[in-house]
Amino acid sequence: MPAPRTAVADPTLTRPDWTRGSPRDPARLWLDKNENWDPELNRVVAEVMRALPAEAYCTYPESAQLYAKLAAWAGVEPGNLMLAAGSDGVIRSVFEAYVEPGDTVIHTVPTFAMYSVYSRMYGARVVGIEYERGSDGPVLAIDRLLTAIRTEGPKLVCLPNPDSPTGTVVPPEQLESIIAAAGEAGALMLVDEAYHPFHPDSVVPAIARYPHLVVCRSTGKAWGMAGIRIGYGVASPEVAKILHKVRPMYEVGAVAVHAFEAMLDHADAMRASVARLEAGKALFLAEMETLGFKVLKGAGNFCHVAFGAHAAAIHARLDGRVMYRKDFAEPCLAGYSRFSAATPELFAPVIALIRAAIQGNRP
């Protein structure tokens, strides 16, 4: 039997067991994966899927119309785009096209798990810039990141904005300085905007000034299409051509192409959903602060709450009813629980359960 690549053969590089799953119990509210469970947008997506033509299921994908329509929506040209199986697919294409064994990749810690996985898969040396724990949540030391870019000789710099799981954003002027520094160092700069437009600021317009910049986006958050698995990257025409060289025969399936093309006609419904989820998030956090808990508001479709002395009682009360991230091993988020954003109506019973847990936990 032939040996796999050395980096892939490394026994410490493991992935979750693909033969085991966690079926979605309809009795629970699933707020653990930053999906969009807004019922109104869910209905729009379902109607779009029911209306797909037969050719969406029985033909290979033809993506040119989607490229044109998406380009108009994003304010770029079709030659600036690439489709992929989620923003994750764009990220992997960037690694496959640009990162060779021994290259240096800089990314934040903690961040989207696949940056670390792809770095190891492609034999890169990782320079991790760790978030520090601040009084108001995780803090990214921009000076340390800039110093690393200027001294470590990176091939690729990865920065989600907002980042996950921290929910932090880099202010526009600082983000531009990071992009510029990556260019001066001869590195590709990948800005992950998976949560756009929950955080409406975007560096897509900066691609005209920085040809080494790549932006990736997801449809699994704001658009409510996590199960369809389609995302896209935006880059200069030169970089986009390179990324297309490493894509599969077809970037995504015909169902995904037809669905996203149709959903672009419902951009107003997507924006309305973002507004509802932001309202729910604001309500939830305000209630948590009223109860005396420290919160992190973040900029994605999620938020954090530190339940402190009531944590065990609240986790017990929510068990079997709400799925969420209970705690983090990373020091910058230790003691915080993370909840995906939901509408005010969906958050109401969660708030009630937390209030009941506190009442029962008081001496």
UniProtKB/TrEMBL annotation:
CDD domains, per the entry: AAT_like
Co-factor requirement: pyridoxal 5'-phosphate
Residue span of region Disordered: 1-25
Entry GO MF terms: pyridoxal phosphate binding; transaminase activity
Alphabetical UniProt keywords: Aminotransferase, Pyridoxal phosphate, Transferase
UniProt cross-references to InterPro entries, sorted A to Z: Aminotransferase_I/II_large (IPR004839), NHTrfase_class1_PyrdxlP-BS (IPR004838), PyrdxlP-dep_Trfase (IPR015424), PyrdxlP-dep_Trfase_major (IPR015421), PyrdxlP-dep_Trfase_small (IPR015422)
PROSITE patterns tied to this protein: AA_TRANSFER_CLASS_1
Class of the enzyme per the UniProt entry, highest EC level: transferase
SUPFAM superfamilies according to UniProt: PLP-dependent transferases
Homology family: Belongs to the class-I pyridoxal-phosphate-dependent aminotransferase family.
Record's protein name: Aminotransferase
